[in-house]
Design brief:
The protein is α+β, with helices and mostly antiparallel strands and 98 residues long. It contains three helices and five strands; from the N terminus they run ββαβαβαβ. It has helices spanning 30-39, 54-62, 75-78; strands spanning 3-9, 14-21, 46-50, 66-67, 88-92. The chain has a five-stranded mixed sheet with strand order 1-2-3-5-4, with helices on one face. A hairpin with a 4-residue loop joins β1 (3-9) and β2. The longest helix has 10 residues, at 30-39. The mean pLDDT is 89.
């Protein structure tokens, strides 16, 4: 397996649950391809929780995601931040590719 993406669509938002690319397939555009294709089917706004790694934050911001405060997450997602000592909630407000 080279990679996968898991997302969930709710009645008024969506969020990326997990994005994984095997190390031998990184830096080949696969994550961008998976994310851009998923954006076509998800409901905006779209949220994700990023690990505190510069390359991840750079990647997500290149797709239009913005860092937000944890208290700006939908109630349903706030519970997912409890186990993280440091994570960066991010949101994509609207389709940036139109």
């Amino acid at each position: 397996m080279c990679g996968f993406l898991i997302a969930s669509k709710h009645h008024d938002f969506s969020y990326f649950i997990k994005i994984f690319i095997a190390s031998s397939y990184r830096k080949k555009g696969l994550a961008t391809y998976l994310m851009q294709n998923a954006l076509e089917y998800l409901k905006y706004p779209i949220y994700l929780l990023s690990l505190p790694k510069i390359y991840l934050l750079s990647f997500y911001t290149s797709l239009g995601f913005k860092i937000i405060k944890k208290n700006q997450l939908p109630r349903e997602l706030k519970k997912h931040t409890r186990g993280f000592i440091r994570c960066f909630p991010m949101v994509l407000e609207e389709n940036q590719q139109s």
